[in-house]
Amino acid sequence: MDNFFKENELKTDALTGVYSKETIESYANxxxxxxxxxxxxxxxxxxxxxxxxxxxxxxxxxxxxxxANTITQIIGDKGTxxxxxxxxxxxxxxxxxxxxxxxxxxxxxxxxxxxxxxPEVGNQTxxxxxxxxxxxxxxxxxxxxLSCAEKALYRGKTKGRNCxxxxxxxxxxxxxxxxxxxxxxxxxxx
Length: 190
Fold this sequence. Notes:
This protein is an alpha/beta fold. The protein has helices at residues 3-7, 21-33, 48-75, 99-114, 142-158, 169-172, and strands at residues 19-20, 38-45, 79-85, 88-94, 128-135, 163-166, 175-176, 188-189. The strands form 2 sheets. A 6-stranded mixed sheet has the order 1-3-4-2-5-6, with helices on both faces. A two-stranded antiparallel sheet has the order 7-8. β3 and β4 (88-94) form a beta hairpin. α3 crosses α4. It starts with a helix and ends with a strand.
């Protein structure tokens, strides 16, 4: 176990039981300070507003709990999962930065999410979109790691959702962010 988890006050999300956004961002910054490679992913539950509107808060909460649980099960001891806000999650995979290994993990998460059975929301099929970046391949600091993950998430959303995008500069550098670190919905392709 990392010293980070022994030495820091860790905050968790009350609904899902995973770490908070503050904890995962502090962890990513800790890894950067230690010059430890990692992958960072942003995950957005597709069409969550519809689920929440159609089936109420209890249905939405069940979706969030099950999504967090599924991501945590698949990642296991390879990484750390957090709920950022609303229907957005993130995870850090310490010392996992190879494209193939990341692809396999993201594919497993996406596939397992679609298998979740939720009678509480009319057995709607759940999907997610994942945007992932890597340190140090894509960035020198956390703000850049986050920006690259946001760009990849934005690209996944514009492709039609239900996918995962691993940030590659040659494909995604043309996506600009008017205010790095803010809502991925404000990004645009140039």
